[in-house]
Every structure is written in structure tokens, then in C-alpha cells.
């Protein structure tokens, strides 16, 4: 299934997402000292894509942050909401901050047009890429207006995400084992390089300034259907693995130097029995490197 570009608004619920609220007098400064992105960007109702890193600079949690009233709503994977709240609480100390789950809010994605919102719902433009459309936070018991925005499926949403080259944590990279650059935070406005310090900031800054990124999540296309989790081999050297897949299209976390060298030498890049080709996303500001030998 591939995404469609026909100018028609579509929307789908995302039951694997949840919402956390961070509020209190110190909420802004508290989050600013922890997150990869600049919380100031949420002023006026905007949203940011951000992460919470380990001290070694690897992504522990990935989410969106929306300014709301006297605090912030964090949209994150539902299965990690409790762990995220616990991690944030670890840094709370004496800060005047309250961290609470919002089980009465559900998450939806809308693309191809503006969402028509029921009472109490909140919508924000997906901060990663305009083509992704909007994220919608719905009070429990409400739904999107299907007349204004015909329903799609979760598979439709992921097909669109894959076609646009947008990684998702837990599917395309592993939490606790991936640097922000590898997950394309630098390409998808997930990190602010000019803000003050935050957890893991030194590692992220060093990778940015030294250009030491060897692995990235990139779109790939196969000569047959791609299998989620399949190992990618450049010639006969391991180069990565397939994350999300939609038929012959997918995303793979790859050693780009090995993939580029194999292709330059006419050696196949294989995911199982399927030959794949790397296609950098349209928004990419990086290029395929070439390593000596494979």
C-alpha cells in the first residue's frame, strides 16, 4: 500500500500513542534543560519534535511537545508513557513541576487538509515535515469529523510515513541504542544546536561538528517485498537492517559508507533475498559517503 497524493483530507486514530502532561511554575525551564529541542518554539501554541537522551547521547524517549495552558502536553508511544514519566521525575528534584498521564486523550493523524475538530480537541502541524499534516489530540469519546475528513487506516498513515522517509522509534531504530543524527533528528527539526545544555548535548554537538555520522535511517526500495527486521548486507558485509516496510518500500538503518561502497563497486545491497536500492529522502541535506573497501 502506498500513500496517495490526491488533495483529499484523511485521518486515522493512532492507538499506540499516549499523552503526558507536564505543568507547574517551573515546567518550561525544567523541560528546556532536558530535551534536545528548544521549548521556546512552543510559545503561542506551536509544537516541537524532541527526544530525551541518555548521558551518552542516545535516544531513550522520542515525542512531540505542545504548549497548552500553564504547561505542556507530550505525545509519545503509549507503551512508554509510564517510563517517560518516571524518567522525567528522576530529574525533577525540587522543581515546581507536576507530571501526569492523560488517559482521557487519544491521538490521531490527519493529512491532505485541515482537520475539523470536535469540542475540546487540539491540533498541531507535525513539526517534522509539512507533508505529514497534523497531529490531533482528542478527548475520550470524541472522533474526527468523517464527512470533512474521510477515515484512513493506520496502515495508510505508516505507508505515507515510509514513502516520505520518516523514521519512527521502536520500528526503525532502537531506543537506548541510537544517536539523534542516526534517527534523522538533525534533518527533521528534532534538535536545536544553538540552545543551552541538555542531557546528552555534548555527544550530539560533537557528532554535528565533526561530521562523524556513519549510520542513518534511510528509505530503500526492493526488487521484491521487504521483510521487517531483515538484515541488510553490502556485498558480504553486514550494513544494517530493515525497520518499517510497505511492500517494496521501506526504511532501513544503514551504515551508509558500506552501502555506498558496495553500490560503487557493483556489489549488491541485499535484504534477505531482495536486492535493495537506497533513496535519500527529498529533505536530506546529507549525501552518501564512500568508504575504502567493503
UniProtKB/TrEMBL annotation:
GO BP annotations, alphabetical order: iron-sulfur cluster assembly
Any Pfam family the entry gives: Beta-barrel_CAF17_C
Keywords: Transit peptide
Limits of the CAF17 C-terminal domain: 214-285
Keyword Metal-binding: no
Keyword match Transit peptide: yes
This protein's name: CAF17 C-terminal domain-containing protein
Organism: Methyloceanibacter methanicus
Amino acid at each position: 500500500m502506498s500513500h496517495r497524493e490526491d488533495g483529499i483530507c484523511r485521518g486515522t486514530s493512532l492507538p499506540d500513542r499516549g499523552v503526558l502532561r507536564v505543568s507547574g511554575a517551573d515546567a518550561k525551564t525544567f523541560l528546556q534543560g532536558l530535551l534536545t529541542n528548544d521549548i521556546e518554539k512552543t510559545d503561542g501554541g506551536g509544537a516541537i519534535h524532541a527526544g530525551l537522551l541518555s548521558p551518552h547521547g542516545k535516544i531513550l524517549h522520542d515525542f512531540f511537545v505542545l504548549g497548552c495552558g500553564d504547561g505542556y502536553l507530550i505525545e509519545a508511544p503509549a507503551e512508554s508513557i509510564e517510563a517517560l514519566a518516571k524518567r522525567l521525575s528522576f530529574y525533577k528534584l525540587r522543581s515546581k513541576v507536576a507530571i501526569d498521564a492523560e488517559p482521557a486523550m487519544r491521538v490521531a493523524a490527519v493529512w491532505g487538509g485541515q482537520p475539523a475538530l470536535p469540542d475540546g480537541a487540539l491540533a498541531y502541524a507535525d513539526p517534522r515535515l509539512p507533508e505529514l499534516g497534523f497531529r490531533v489530540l482528542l478527548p475520550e469519546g470524541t472522533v474526527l469529523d468523517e464527512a470533512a475528513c474521510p477515515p484512513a487506516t493506520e496502515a495508510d498513515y505508516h505507508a505515507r510515513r515510509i514513502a516520505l522517509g520518516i523514521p519512527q522509534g521502536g520500528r526503525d531504530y532502537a531506543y537506548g541504542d541510537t544517536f539523534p543524527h542516526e534517527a534523522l533528528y538533525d534533518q527533521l527539526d528534532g534538535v536545536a544546536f544553538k540552545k543551552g545544555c541538555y542531557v546528552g548535548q555534548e555527544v550530539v554537538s560533537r557528532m554535528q561538528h565533526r561530521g562523524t555520522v556513519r549510520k542513518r535511517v534511510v528509505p530503500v526500495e526492493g526488487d521484491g517485498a521487504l521483510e521487517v527486521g531483515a538484515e541488510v548486507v553490502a556485498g558480504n558485509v553486514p550494513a544494517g537492517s530493515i525497520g518499517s516496510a510497505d511492500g517494496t518500500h521501506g526504511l532501513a538503518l544503514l551504515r551508509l559508507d558500506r552501502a555506498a561502497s558496495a553500490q560503487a563497486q557493483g556489489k549488491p545491497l541485499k535484504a534477505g533475498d531482495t536486492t535493495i536500492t537506497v533513496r535519500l529522502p527529498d529533505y536530506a541535506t546529507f549525501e552518501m559517503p564512500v568508504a575504502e573497501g567493503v
